[in-house]
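Quick check before the chapter quiz. The format below is the same one you will see on the exam, so make sure you can read both the input and the output lines.
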Amino acid sequence: MGVVAGRAAACEPQGSRSAVIEGAANLGRELAFQFGLNAAFHFIGSVGYGSGHAFDRATCPKVEQDWKALQQKYTGQ
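Here is the expected output.
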């Protein structure tokens, strides 16, 4: 989940990445609430990994779709 969030942030233009990062922070809080701080810590670490490593940008439409589905599932947003 975190890697997907990180890649979704990396797919966004620089000016609109903050919305994805805010969504990841919201999901991290929800994970902490539902599953504990350890799960939230691993999620946020994975966000950093996903946004910091090279990947095939042609997959961005699928990444964005997956990220929206994860947010909907866990936060209802």
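If your answer matched, good. The two ends are 15 Å apart (CA to CA).
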